């Protein structure tokens, strides 16, 4: 049996406090457990806190099957979860595809398995072990790829059924948590393999930035993500309110007045365009597609309709008309 009552070190207290705020009385949650320090610390904290807030907690382990011994690592994580008192505990073995590269394909397979496990077991939420360091890496990767404010917002504390209670906890804290709790985490060799972009960011880029610019880079990146998320939420709220006043629905689709779009700042104008397309046709526009549509407002000289995947946009009689393409 694992030591169920480790000495209450400051790190254990910090992680438990972070987890406590993510649990609600009467709910049933699953911990996504790999056996690594982050998820193992999360699992131990959830096992301790769940009963104290009147919640139930189990665990799900995803075996990606990408390296020798992965089944043994999954079985060990299962045993640790059961020893901590989590129940039920499930191991899901997945087949990883190739779309988007190895990291993206593994992530897709993992989230699919977690979602399936939540449905099968009736869980209200799945708790993930992403830390402040993971958030900093995500923001830096988004910045390097030039993928805009949405990417720079990093990971949300809650997205659908997924919760990330450790986004304010550093990775070294989860390692110390395991030490203080007499837990032995599994160290995935792929987490140190330079073939993966995120590993290079973790082991080379961020340490270099810390060395050249001073300490606190990871915290600064995480703060940036939080501030951008707040700003984006406000702009999205304003866009939804404006859309309610401006949008004209018809059998053919939806229309927005070009003059009113032109009067709004670019950030709101482009949100209104994306919102109209997504709400009416369930299509997500890229930035380049959104800007192409926006030119019907900001650079209008009589050009014809724009055909986008599933949607046609044209300017007529002062309106931007969005209709479904055959």
TrEMBL record:
Give the tRNA(Ile)-lysidine/2-thiocytidine synthase N-terminal domain ranges: 29-203
Query: Which GO MF term does the entry hold, naming one?
Result: tRNA(Ile)-lysidine synthase activity
Its annotated compartments are: Cytoplasm
CDD domains assigned: TilS_N
What's one Pfam family here? ATP_bind_3
Please indicate if the UniProt record lists tRNA processing as a keyword: yes
Gene Ontology cellular component terms for the protein in this record:
cytoplasm
Q: Which reaction does it catalyse?
A: cytidine(34) in tRNA(Ile2) + L-lysine + ATP = lysidine(34) in tRNA(Ile2) + AMP + diphosphate + H(+)
Limits of the tRNA(Ile)-lysidine synthase substrate-binding domain: 256-318
Database matches in InterPro entries: Rossmann-like_a/b/a_fold, TilS/TtcA_N, tRNA_Ile_lys_synt, tRNA_Ile_lys_synt_N, tRNA_Ile_lys_synt_subst-bd
User: EC number(s)?
Assistant: 6.3.4.19
Binding of ATP occurs at: 34-39
Q: Provide this UniProt record's keywords sorted from A to Z.
A: ATP-binding, Cytoplasm, Ligase, Nucleotide-binding, tRNA processing
Specify the superkingdom. Bacteria
For this entry, list what GO says about its biological process: tRNA modification
Q: State the function annotated in the UniProt record.
A: Ligates lysine onto the cytidine present at position 34 of the AUA codon-specific tRNA(Ile) that contains the anticodon CAU, in an ATP-dependent manner. Cytidine is converted to lysidine, thus changing the amino acid specificity of the tRNA from methionine to isoleucine.
The free-text domain note is: The N-terminal region contains the highly conserved SGGXDS motif, predicted to be a P-loop motif involved in ATP binding.
Tell me which family the UniProt entry assigns to this protein. Answer: Belongs to the tRNA(Ile)-lysidine synthase family.
Q: What is this protein called?
A: tRNA(Ile)-lysidine synthase
- Report the source organism: Salinibacterium xinjiangense
Q: What is the lineage of its organism?
A: Bacteria, Bacillati, Actinomycetota, Actinomycetes, Micrococcales
**Gene that this polypeptide is encoded by:** tilS
